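Course assignment 3, question 2. Fill in each field.
Student: A.L.
Task: Predict the tertiary structure for the chain below.
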Amino acid sequence: MMSCPNLNALVWQHLFRNARRRPFVWKSGRSIVPNGNSFSTETKEIVIPNYIPRGPTDILEALASTVKRDPTAPHFKFHDDPYLIPASNHAKRTYALAQEAGRKAANWIKHEHAELFQHRNAEPFIQAFAPAEKLTETTPITEDLLKKYIHTAQVANAIHVYGKLDSAAISPETRQSFLEFVAFYNEDDQLNQDFVEERWFKSGMKGKDQIRQTWKNNGLAEAVFNSMERKTPEAYCALICGMAKHGKAVGAWEYYNQMLAEGFAPNLTTYNSIFKIAGIVREDAEHQIRLIDETLRNMVHAGIKPNVRTLNSILESISRIPIYRVAREKSLQVLSDFKSIGVKPSLGSYYFLLKIFCREKGPINNILVGIVNRLEYEMPPLQDLHDVAFFAEAMRVCNYHLEDVQLAKRLHDLLCLPQNQALIGDSYKESIYYRCFLLLLTRAEGPEALMEMYRHLVPNIYTPEQSVFEAVVKSVAECSAVHYVPELWSDAVYMDMGERESILEVLLEALASGSGPDSNTVSDKDDVDPVLATARAITAHVDNFLKVAEEKNRPTSLRWTGSMLGNLAKLFLQYGDVASANAIIIKVHTLKNQLSSFFPVATLNKFYESCIERQDSAMALMAIDYAVEMGYDESSSMAKQAREQLKLDERQQEKLNSILGSTSTTSEES
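Answer field:
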């Protein structure tokens, strides 16, 4: 569309006439827009805010803060597909490890066939994404190549190049860097930081607070150190820190004393390493405290100010002191001393305080209440590796030590803050946290509050272990909240727990704990009560599972038990489902020599009374036969009642006479 030149001319003419009567006002290089037909003389000053320093990821953090975790969605590491979303713990572990194995395979192909991945589309180029260069016979071995491998953390290649280089040709600075490098990594290539699943799942197999010695005795690090003509303080520090990191506590302590004898002053990192191993090199509590005090005095004389990692290392050693009173008094003294020099505790410090004050067999201590009060006022930033262990340990204390559900809820509210969600740690610590939280709720909360939190967590955020799921079902049953059991059965099937005998036992016991059909639940005569439908579904599920296992000759630990069948029969009688109750008694009669427990005599009596009311002679005789087989005292009275109140044909009369004869013979023999 073409503009009209006459219209443009009229607009400019109007603006020019108004400008002659009332001039434009410019401020900061911009004209003030007029109001109405004339321009305003009022000026508004543009205020430029002060510069605020921003980090490279501040915009991403601001965007991430607007997105909250969706409990109905799976973890981001799983594919958001209904057929690929795992629900059970086994499936989550398998899917996560399988996906990581795929990334490992792709990474292996990238490095093995580096010639196929030489394109450089990124600008600027990111060296970490490029395949690693291979060492060949034609590769020139230089000190610069060794420095490159040290810088890129390629341990195997760096060790190979160091072995090829002439020792005299390596500069002292490069030798020191190489010593620090091999001591830190213990001569092993480290797993890529992106491959965390295997490391996370392995962490659950390690012993509690166990320090394993993985240091390579008389290895390359010690050889490099011994090859130095002039031992420097930096060389001692590198070797001591490496040994302490990899569990060689005695060796680190010996080199530390040798360093002091040479007149060298350790650096702060070395002192922190010595504090960490104090509980290992000195087993007696008094000697441990003396070692800590002596090392602190050495720091003061050397003019080295401790930091929060020093505090955490000292508290870690104190937490290993077996005497509660000594550990408690020393930890409070250390906290007071560090507070006086301006060192504030981190979450890792609080973690070790909980381990000191809230021991399994120690007296009850409410130190966690004060810690939570302080964290609600000010949350310290992430400063130490042990910071991510605080929330799991704190929830464990709430559950097993204090049994304080209100404190646990306050702790959970702290964790749910957007900036704190990463502090829960790896999958193993996350499982401990939610396990303790749910177990505490099962004991301290009603079914409504329990199920509200259960629905929020299960199954995407947390998949309960078998013991936790059983505790949830028992808690619901104790409160007679039977209407929640159908939902729990659905979750059990979804989480691959539907074939576990103990799970079925508690579910059926919970179903049978009700008082019968609820008139408010079923609105139409054709509708089926959810509780009754769940009982039928469990029966069909177990029967189908056992049938498939038998057809495929597959061993299984799942079997019908007398208590399971008893709860089913009791529930069917409550809801007037006579056909299903009869089917259960037939199953009991068929499997009576295979059941691992007895059919409850109270339920058998109730079923027998139902048979008398219905004049069902066949099922009544079957119940009497089972009672005689199991040796129940009620069998004789049941048989006599059947003769008096049931209309028996000749064959049934003969069978009843044989039962009465066997019971009388048994009583005479006894």
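Instructor remarks: Strands lie at 26-27, 30-31. The first helix runs from residue 5 to 21.
Grade: pending
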